[in-house]
Amino acid sequence: MSNNLNLDGCDLVKLALKYGTPLYVFSQGMIERRCREIKEQFLNRHEGSHAYYASKAFLTLAMCQIIEKEGLGLDVVSGGELHLALKASFPAERIVLHGNNKLRQEIEMAVESGVGRIVVDWEGEIDIIDEVSKIKGQKTPILLRVTPEVKAMTHKYIQTGHRGSKFGIPLERIPYVVKKTISLSNVELKGFHFHLGSQIDDYRTYLEAVDVITKLMSDLREGLGYTTEELDIGGGFGIGNGEGSLTKPISYFTDPAMERIKARCLTFGLPLPSVAIEPGRWITGEAGITLYTVGAIKEIPGSCTYVSVDGGMADNIRPALYGARYRAEVANKMGRDKDKIVTVAGRCCESGDILIEDLPVPGDIEPGDILAVFNTGAYSYSMASNYNMLPKPAVVFVDKGEDILVVERETYDDLVVKQRGIRSALRV
Ligand SMILES: Cc1ncc(COP(=O)(O)O)c(C=O)c1O
């Protein structure tokens, strides 16, 4: 019996040898279990509710097919994400299009493919949607994204609902925008959306925003006779760090939010809107592990010991971008005493390319060991770059002892496939 780290019956050291490193490995079972929890604890308990997986967290054709099979919808934020979803034969009517600066071409694509909802992020966008829909002879259902002026307790780079946020329509503009929107013939205003930020771990943040939005809904009904049919409360449901804090069930967030929505609607005499959520990280974050091979090890007396791996900020920008913290294990040396503290460095030419600080590891860590970094399933692969001309890693799904390759590793040739030398450059 091997002492190697295992995920869903697959030996991760063997996977590293089979596919090479860096390698993103995902537990398909965990993704499916998260989707089922959303179905059981939210969708089945609240009539008319919807859950759209925020695909920016992690998107591949295979991932889309899992979300489709599990019966959830999809939140996309660009023409590229929409294209991929349609390529995966994801039903357009279960797609919601976001974006704080959608291109006209993206709006055309969305209207043409018949996406379920477009979430409007600024006033001028409504005219474009109306015009495009008129040309296509359609009426497009939209939501208005409201900035509820609620500051989530999370890193400032991932706060989105505070006053001054680049996302959403300022609260005080909403009555004007609603009045204008309901007078248009080719858009249908279904309701409102807010998204407060990411990695939120306190349900009360959602309640603050619900209070703001339900008051707005009441004012609009009184002032304009407009009744809100739908309310999308966004995503941002946090996950644990794998050490002290554990991931909370989805109901930890959604039960109090639903209770508050119901209570406020009762107080204001409003009909209950159908409610939607957009979880991203909560579905895939913990399902992903990144495997690296250890290379250079530098012991710097009086400073620290650097353990360098064959990836870094190009496959996981989050530690460098906003100080995200990760836990890791030496996958081929499980169960040994961890009597050494190291700094895990990436291989990019940036001093800031540090993946983990102060990581306890076995004292005999050496080049060739396989380091497994946990909880990398969200915003790692989707934010990956080719900095330093590093090819993007492969993605493997594991399930009940079987592994499948869902994204091939990029090759050096892939990196130059769109380039031309000075003599073969195109004059366009
Ligand atoms: C509009 C919207 N919905 C949902 C999400 C998903 O957030 P998370 O992955 O934290 O759940 C995001 C993330 O940025 C978002 O912008």
Automatic annotation (TrEMBL):
It catalyses: meso-2,6-diaminopimelate + H(+) = L-lysine + CO2. Its EC number is 4.1.1.20. The active site is at C349 (proton donor). Pathway: Amino-acid biosynthesis; L-lysine biosynthesis via DAP pathway; L-lysine from DL-2,6-diaminopimelate: step 1/1. Pfam families: Orn_Arg_deC_N. Pyridoxal 5'-phosphate binds at G236, E278, P279, G280, R281, Y379. Homodimer. This is Diaminopimelate decarboxylase.
